[in-house]
Amino acid sequence: MEFQNGQIINKQRFPSPNPAIELSVVTYHANGLHIKGLLAEPKGEELYDGFLYLRGGIKNVGKVRPSRIVQFACEGFIVFAPFYRGNQGGDGNEDFAGEDRQDAFAAFTLLQERARVKRVHIFGFSRGGVMALLTAIEFPEAASIVTWGGVSDMFLTYVERKDLRRMMKRVIGGTPTKFPERYKYRTPLFRLEQLEAPVLIIHGEQDHNVSVEHSYRLEKRLKALKKEVGSWYFPEYTHYFPPAVNRKTVEDLSAWMKSNG
Q: Which SUPFAM superfamilies is this protein grouped with (predicted)?
């Protein structure tokens, strides 16, 4: 049987921490692979904007958390968060914003084709920032993009994160010096001319996981291209915001999406 990208192959109910939100683990098709992800839908028949949640990390680091997905669904979105290939029973292997970007592209299509979804916004956290920008470049009809503590430059990640170099060399196939084209392929800064959607950048300036320099470079490039971009920098925070600030930021970025998309 032939499947289309973004087509749902299987959907299983998952316990939800909120009775108003229905959670499902979904298996969907992405370029010949069966990928898993988490879908959160407010109960009822009402139409909502779609929210593509692109996680950070790799493998078991930065896994999709149901409580986080439900948090965004409670702001009035139908949320889908792909686990990326090779994770939690999905086919294939993650390659850190290489071909696994196809998992995000197919997830965008999955949301577009939900009957109750009006338009689709893209959100990326940490490594998901690169995924969000690449997806928005691929789908110019995206309503808006938010990148929170997001990677924008894979060369810079290699330089800054000595602890990730071994993984990056293994997954990407070598160093940026040896294979610059592979790192360029994973760096959306080189293709921002193709971006149409408004962008909001959120970053803690004390972030040691993804330095704020990633966001500075992204904002500078977008402004040079006269793209629509806003930024919320938090001088006192790291990669992870305190719970109360985190909740308020979620509310604020959700409102921004709905008003700017």
A: alpha/beta-Hydrolases
